[in-house]
Design a protein that fits this description.
With 434 residues, this protein is of the alpha/beta class. It has helices at 17-28, 48-55, 93-97, 103-112, 125-136, 172-181, 226-236, 289-298, 337-356, 410-429; strands at 10-13, 33-36, 62-64, 70-72, 142-143, 185-187, 190-198, 201-209, 212-217, 220-223, 244-246, 251-257, 271-275, 280-284, 311-318, 323-326, 331-332, 360-364, 368-369, 393-395. GO terms for molecular function: flavin adenine dinucleotide binding; oxidoreductase activity, acting on CH-OH group of donors.
Length: 434
């Protein structure tokens, strides 16, 4: 490893959408930025093996709850955006109600990013079949905004969730690369142990990297380690309780087979439907064969293991009630009665769509989740500027979301990061009054 920096203008802990957006904005303004990422930064290969290393190691990227449900996160450069389904949704109204106006940031990002519905030629046959059936059933199923470069995206490809090796999918690694071109430094495989405080304010971090413990000083520290990592760092720094509740956007995949399609390899979440008043959303969910097989086996549907290429799959996602706990070494959350009712309602709608599509042998997966958040919410742990009660210490990731939402958070986190970066850059240029 090159010599480790002893100081900088700002330290960003974590490189997912929130952290990468802050780092890019600050670096473009001329700040000396150090990004510390716990995961690796190897080029994305688009393989099951690499994805598993990012998101399937128990206690690191994967957490099994008492009810046998699974929560996953991506521990890698770019965070979970590296292995997500590349779907975008506008920021939730709960932020605007608290006085966090992201309209300008969203407009700027939408104008810049490869963000919009896929062209028809990239909508796979299974997604088309599901969309037609949903519309025939009277539902307002529509194309979803995707963070994908259509000119590079390939038909018959299933690698979104493995990590796109072709550069078609936008990820936070794009902003990381840009930040580094502006002079930021990314250190991967770096585990931050705690935030250093001096005089009642943040003064840097203690980090283990390259087999050694380093101290890096900075007047600004931004925790962007995710809905699990950031509250743990606050606790390790003596700034938060050992356990905090969270939400996670639980998902059930509802699957059924048809006889007249042969597919199984297409962009997932190409189209869908949100019912915000009910806290339920839907999308087509083409899965790689190993993931489909795992879901089928988990619920005992061994008879469907060979039906992957003929199986239509619909994602049912809910905005769950906050509860459970993120602890120092464990994470656990079970469904509430209200959560179960939402999922039953969503599953019933999905089954109706599959019946309309002519699917048979319909079954539901066990619920799983991939959006841990709400563990350092605005109005409780951070203010509307995302600063904690400790001056100089900020949080910018899904931990700050003030309420369950049930939709993809990537665009919201990019907006929050851009906003925070602009605020910090402006504050750095202010001069004290004479």
């Amino acid at each position: 490893m090159d010599s480790f920096p002893s100081s900088c203008d700002a330290i960003v802990v974590g490189s997912g959408p929130g952290g990468a957006s802050v780092a890019r904005t600050l670096a473009a303004a001329g700040a000396r930025v150090l990004v510390l990422e716990r995961g690796g930064a190897a080029p994305v290969a688009g393989t099951l093996t690499q994805m598993a290393a990012m998101a399937a190691i128990p206690g690191k990227g994967a957490f099994f709850h008492r009810d046998a449900s699974l929560l996953v996160r991506g521990v890698t450069a770019g965070g979970s955006s590296t292995i997500n389904f590349a779907t975008a949704a506008s920021p939730p109204a709960s932020l605007a109600r608290l006085g966090i106006d992201l309209a300008d940031d969203e407009r700027a990002l939408r104008a810049e990013l490869p963000l919009g519905p896929l062209p028809d030629e990239l909508i796979g046959p299974m997604a088309q079949r599901i969309m037609a059936a949903a519309r025939d059933a009277g539902l307002g199923w529509h194309k979803l905004d995707k963070m994908i470069r259509p000119a590079i995206c390939r038909t018959g490809c299933w690698r979104c969730v493995y990590g796109c090796p072709f550069g078609a999918k936008w990820t936070a690694r794009d902003f990381l690369d840009e930040a580094c071109r502006h002079g930021a430094r990314l250190v991967a495989d770096a585990r931050v142990e705690r935030v250093i405080m001096e005089g009642g304010r943040a003064a840097g971090v203690e980090v283990t990297a390259g087999g050694a413990v380093h101290t890096v000083r900075a007047p600004v520290v931004v925790l962007a380690a995710g809905g699990i990592g950031s509250p743990r760092l606050l606790y390790q720094s003596g700034l938060a309780p050992a356990t905090v509740p969270f939400f996670s956007d639980p998902v059930v995949a509802v699957m059924g087979s048809v006889d007249d399609l042969d597919g199984g390899a297409e962009v997932p979440m190409a189209a869908g439907l949100a019912l915000p008043d009910e806290g339920i959303s839907f999308a087509d969910l083409a899965l790689p064969q190993p993931m489909y097989g795992a879901f089928a086996a988990q619920v005992g549907r061994f008879d469907r293991l060979g039906a992957h290429r003929r199986t239509l799959s619909i994602m049912v996602k809910i905005a769950d009630e906050a509860g459970g706990a993120v602890g120092p070494r464990w994470v656990d959350k079970t469904l509430t009665t209200a959560d179960k009712a939402k999922l039953r309602r969503g599953v019933d709608i999905a089954r109706g769509i599959l019946r309309q599509a002519g699917a048979k042998h319909v079954f539901d997966s066990h619920h799983f989740a991939a959006h841990p958040g709400g563990t350092a919410p605005v109005g409780t742990v951070v203010d509307t500027g995302l600063q904690t009660r400790t001056p100089g210490l900020y949080v910018c990731d899904a931990a700050v979301l003030p309420a369950p939402w049930g939709l993809p958070p990537t665009l919201t986190l990019l907006c929050l990061g851009r906003r925070l970066g602009r605020q910090l850059a402006a504050a750095a240029t202010e001069r004290p009054a004479a």
